[in-house]
Design brief:
heterodimer, A: 295 residues, mainly alpha, MetI-like fold, 14 helices, 2 strands, 69% helix, 2% strand, B: 433 residues, alpha+beta, 2 domains, 6-stranded mixed beta sheet, 12 helices, elongated
Chain lengths: 295, 433
């Protein structure tokens, strides 16, 4: 038996992996630990970091930064400020929730129905339509922003949440992913259900969907993370700052509010993290079995 | 009443691939019909057309008296067992079996009673809370049968249900399915490519090739009276041997001329008639004979041993004879070395002659009663014929002297059935003096 030549020893590989892991984790750890520092300690470490520009935007002005991971004293004052004294942060958080949750639910529902149709019905039209979906999926979102803006303006949805929710619901990526997954379901199962007297709706809900649970979870997680972090769409389509989500509002934090920025960032991360942790297993299975990743 | 009538069924895929052509037959109520044939012969397509899973391109399908061409599968009162069982993987065995009944809005207590009764019959009561992935192939097979059973359908359709099981389990499940058929008293249509399953399970067998029925008959009919070369070669393990031959005629009657031997043909109503053979005189035909209808003799067709496979209870000899490859199945353990020469005795009453062009069995219409052809297992035995090169025997008594095991009861039966002048010869038979 031929042995594969090893370029790195196991120990060296571990060190390299550890360096990568630390590099990726460092900002997150810094954010979490610094969110528990008092404003005084943060000012001592970072000095003035941001300054407000005339247009209301912020700019990075710090000339000396001392990275410190462990707070001298643990303080919850930043969280108290965010949660109890600054309602605008909670409002932005809520804005994010009411934008993202309908998109996730809607996109999963639409994708499931569309994928079922792509799986069940054969013919040339199906192949052409699926090809169009793939093309659309390959386009970067920025390409679609201008048409989305024009359509939203034409339909009178501009500056309403629907201008973001509707394009979000009908996204091609989820349809593609779920179609690939559903095509793995043996046709004999569908046929057995037909012979068992099940209607098309019952086959969809009782036979097909339960078997796509991992793919549905994967899609929900990916869509949630994608739209939870959206910036371009709300900036372009929502001119009213009161409707903008937390992801946009984070960038408008003023000088002297670094501590609050850390606390908001931690709060902002929590939903994504919880959803990921809850569906991690399904995410891997769903993506692998959809053919997106070679299993 | 669950008879099935198929009238000239035709299935064309994508407007160009002809999967089934002109399939017509009547399946009686409570009959066990086996569709058998090689892969791609259209047997599963026929089954799926009966199930309603494939549209019928042409023809008519009746279940009972009702035309079913456009009736959706759920309204056909049929149940199907799939090759891969098609159990719903996310449901327990109980849920799998109950699903069809729930769809029909049966009360829960009735569903429960039916599921538990079927589980008891199939001995899967302990598995009701398990999911399919936690079961063996045989258990899944039982669940698939149970799911079909609880519906109490008019017709059971089974699409190669044993093909995923190992040989031992397949044998036991075969018996289970036969018992189940008797117990349920329902019409069964069973698809398989395994001719052993076909022979052992079916009341009647439908042999198919390239979408066309080759023969419909009982297992014995299909085995002993194959309609054509395809059926003769497909049914039977090992397959039938085929040799090129010329039909000749002389004063003694008809005989076959092989590469280096002659075989006198029996002129008997039960085998061949002058009328059937006359039109083939001096024409090439294909001689077919099953491996268990050939025996080793002191005299007869010379053959060279290629390989001898001793399986314990029987021995397969792979031989070269008359420019053809021949397989001989002998009872018991027979030791033969490669390149050893042996003489073969063809039991003439088991010789089949096929038209080389059409492939049809020349003597098929003449075979009248099963008694004319003894079942294969009754005529196999170590029969020895006279030494090669001797004058051909002209009557039955002299032929009988060739037998060394005179006390063999089965051989006596065979002899009684044999007409005169039936044995293979090295020399061309001479005119009777």
């Amino acid at each position: 038996m031929m042995l594969k030549k090893k370029y790195f020893s196991r120990g060296a590989l571990t060190v390299i992996a550890a360096i990568f892991a630390i590099t990726f984790l460092l900002p997150t750890v810094l954010t979490v630990t610094n969110s528990f520092m008092s404003q005084t300690e943060l000012s001592a470490n970072y000095g003035p970091v941001f300054d407000s520009l005339k247009g209301g935007a912020t700019t990075y002005v710090a000339d000396k930064v001392t990275l410190k991971f462990i707070p001298d004293t643990v303080s919850f004052s930043q969280y108290a400020t965010v949660l109890f004294k600054s309602p605008e942060y909670l409002l932005k958080f809520w804005n994010s929730v009411i934008l993202v949750v309908p998109i996730v639910i809607g996109q999963v529902a639409v994708a499931a129905l569309a994928a079922y149709s792509f799986m069940r019905y054969r013919g040339r039209a199906r192949e052409i339509l699926f090809f169009v979906y793939i093309i659309l999926m390959l386009m970067p979102y920025q390409v679609m922003l201008v048409p989305n803006y024009l359509v939203a303006d034409w339909t009178g949805l501009l500056n309403t949440r629907w201008s973001i929710i509707l394009p979000g619901i009908f996204a091609p990526f989820s349809v593609f992913l779920l179609t690939k997954f559903m095509r793995r379901i043996p046709s004999s199962l569908i046929e057995a259900a037909k012979l068992d007297g099940a209607s098309e709706w019952r086959i969809f809900t009782r036979i097909c969907l339960p078997q796509c649970r991992s793919a549905l979870y994967s899609i929900a997680i990916l869509v949630f993370i994608d739209y939870w972090n959206m910036v371009e769409q709300p900036i372009i389509l929502l001119s009213d700052p009161d409707k903008q989500p937390l992801s946009v509002y984070l960038s408008t934090i003023n000088a002297g509010e670094v501590g609050i920025a850390f606390a908001v960032a931690v709060i902002y991360m929590i939903p994504s993290l919880l959803i990921f942790l809850h569906g991690e297993e399904y995410l891997v299975e769903g993506i692998t079995h959809s053919g997106s990743v070679k299993g | 009443m669950s008879s099935i009538t198929l009238k000239n069924l035709k299935k064309v895929y994508d407007g160009e691939v002809l999967a089934v052509n002109g399939f017509s037959m009547d399946i009686q109520d409570k009959e066990f019909i086996v569709l058998v044939g090689p892969s791609g012969c259209g047997k599963s397509t026929v089954l799926r057309m009966i199930a309603g899973l494939e549209e019928i391109t042409e023809g008519e399908l009746y279940i009972g008296d009702k035309k079913m061409n456009d009736v959706p599968p759920r309204d056909r009162d049929i149940a199907m067992v799939f090759q891969n069982y098609a159990l719903y993987p996310h449901m327990t065995v109980y849920k799998n079996m109950a699903f069809g009944l729930e769809n029909r809005k049966l009360p829960k207590d009735q569903i429960d009673a039916k599921v538990r009764e079927a589980a008891k019959i199939l001995d899967i009561e302990d598995l009701l809370d398990r999911k399919p992935k936690a079961m063996s192939g045989g258990q899944r097979q039982r669940v698939a049968l149970g799911r079909a059973m609880v519906r109490e359908p008019a017709v059971f359709l089974l699409d190669e249900p044993l093909s995923n099981l190992d040989a031992k389990l397949r044998t036991s499940m075969r018996t289970e399915i036969i018992k189940l058929h008797k117990r349920l008293g329902t019409t069964f249509v069973y698809v398989t490519h395994d001719q052993i399953e076909a022979m052992t399970m079916g009341d009647r067998i439908v042999v198919m090739k390239e979408g066309v029925i080759q023969q419909i008959g009982t297992p014995a009919e299909v085995y002993h009276q194959p309609a054509n070369i395809f059926v003769a070669g497909f049914i039977g393990t090992p397959p039938m041997n085929f040799l090129d031959a010329l039909i000749r005629h002389d004063a003694n009657g008809f005989y076959l001329e092989l590469a280096d031997a002659y075989i006198r043909l029996p002129e008997h109503d039960q085998y061949f008639t002058a009328d059937s053979l006359a039109q083939y005189v001096d024409k090439e035909v294909l001689l077919g004979i099953r491996p268990d209808n050939i025996s080793i003799s002191d005299k007869g067709l010379p053959a060279r041993v290629d390989v001898a496979e001793a399986l314990g209870g029987e021995t397969y000899l792979y031989l070269e004879c008359c420019d053809a490859k021949i397989i001989v199945k002998l009872q018991g353990t027979v030791t033969k070395q490669p390149d050893e020469m042996v003489n073969l005795f063809f039991r003439p009453e088991h010789i089949h002659l096929f038209d080389k062009e059409s492939g049809h069995n020349i003597n098929l219409p003449l075979i009248k009663a099963p008694a004319a052809t003894l079942p294969a297992d009754e005529v196999t035995g170590n029969v020895t014929t006279e030494a090669a090169g001797a004058e051909p025997p002209t009557d039955l008594s002299s032929a009988a002297e060739q037998l060394t095991n005179e006390d063999n009861k089965k051989e006596k039966i065979r002899k009684r059935l044999l007409p005169k002048n039936l044995f293979p010869h090295k020399k061309k038979p001479t005119k009777e003096e």
